[in-house]
Amino acid sequence: GGLITLDPGFKNTGSCESAITFLNGEEGILRYRGYSIEDLAEKASFLEVAYLLIFGELPTQEQLDKFYGDIKDESHVDEEMKKILDGFPKSAHPMGVLSSLTSALIAFNPSSVNVDSEEDMYKAIVKLLAKFPVLVAWTLRKRNSKPLDYGDSSLDYVDNILKMMFKKPNEEYKVNPVVSAALNKLLILHADHEQNCSTSTVRIVGSSHAGLFASISAGISALWGPLHGGANQAVIEMLEGIKEDGGDTKKYMAKAKDKEDPFRLMGFGHRVYKNFDPRAKIIKKSADEVLGDLGVQDPVLDIAKGLEKEALEDDYFVKRKLYPNVDFYSGIIYRALGIPTEMFTVMFALGRLPGWIAQWREMRLKKEPIGRPRQVYTGENLRDFKDIENR
Ligand code: CMC
């Protein structure tokens, strides 16, 4: 073989060409299909952003109506799926449940697997955008021992998700516009982030021509880890821990800097952003606004702000260019919206779904080859086999 370049963690290796998301880590710039994240978070709806990421252009009203109409037509989930959900203990982590349910969907939608034409891809994409929120809502309701329900097609995409998640039996559910706007913004901010760990997973699984749902299920598993999407849960647990320990942020700063201590400041640092994470800026501002509008006071918000201030003035963090990332303040908003901590990463998955889909579709349309990295072998040379009695 030829010379192999070794790059653990792919820190300097591009895996593909992509026209979806532009990210400049030095200057803190993030754009979807050329539109700034600041504009999209302020002015667009999540479903518009999903359309933009997947198909490359912002939809006209007519295109959006058709797209959402197609989604609504596919929003039923097979009743048998409820039995699968029933089989899980209530204590099961929602991310494990969600990735399992996403895989299980394949059995009930076999036509979603071999999709070579753009038309068949569209059908599979619409099915997933329709059914995934139902699975998310069911995952939450199972955890909370609430009856499972379907959506309300009179509502928009995000309001319908809120209703599916939170509607109580025998009670009317009224969407709170503050909650709805906050969730729209969070989902948009999470919608794509070029070749991150879960997206690379989706592309590499999809590159073997495994179906879309199987690729997404693998992406959910990748997102689960605390170094990636799982950080949002880990941040709140960390902040709670600091609060219960008396709120001494200095003590935890010291732990984060101590190389003998495995503790890291969760929600800090990023592989690509080395100046600031533009998503974190928007979310921090939004956290203040949403908590104010909802009249929620959360003592961990003060701890978070204290930690951020100390870190930004600390040599260790400055030298390593560690800044708050998207996950540092997002959990504080999710909490104010009434979403349980264990569900935070599920909400990230819901937001990232259009990005995963867009990247999968791009990869398949470009007929990319199967992903198959090489290695540098460091094991034994040829050895003589020894019979078991002689070992
Ligand atoms: N707390 C303390 N030290 C840190 C942290 C942190 N959060 N992050 C990085 N460092 C140090 C690290 O110890 C290393 O120091 P040294 O050069 O002395 O060995 C240096 O900074 C570089 O870190 P790295 O681990 O080599 O960088 P990476 O690009 O491999 O990892 C990261 C990036 C995001 C995994 C890492 O910063 C981290 O673990 N952060 C905490 C978890 C987190 O918030 N993840 C969410 C990321 S953003 C959203 C998402 O992807 O889901």
UniProtKB/TrEMBL annotation:
Keyword Lipid biosynthesis on entry: no
Alphabetical UniProt keywords: Transferase, Tricarboxylic acid cycle
CDD domains xrefs: EcCS_like
Entry's transmembrane regions: none
Pfam families the record matches: Citrate_synt
Superkingdom as given in the UniProt entry: Bacteria
Catalyzed reactions per annotation: oxaloacetate + acetyl-CoA + H2O = citrate + CoA + H(+)
Pathway(s) served: Carbohydrate metabolism; tricarboxylic acid cycle; isocitrate from oxaloacetate: step 1/2
Family stated for the protein in its record: Belongs to the citrate synthase family.
Stored PANTHER family: CITRATE SYNTHASE (PTHR42871)
Protein's recorded name: Citrate synthase
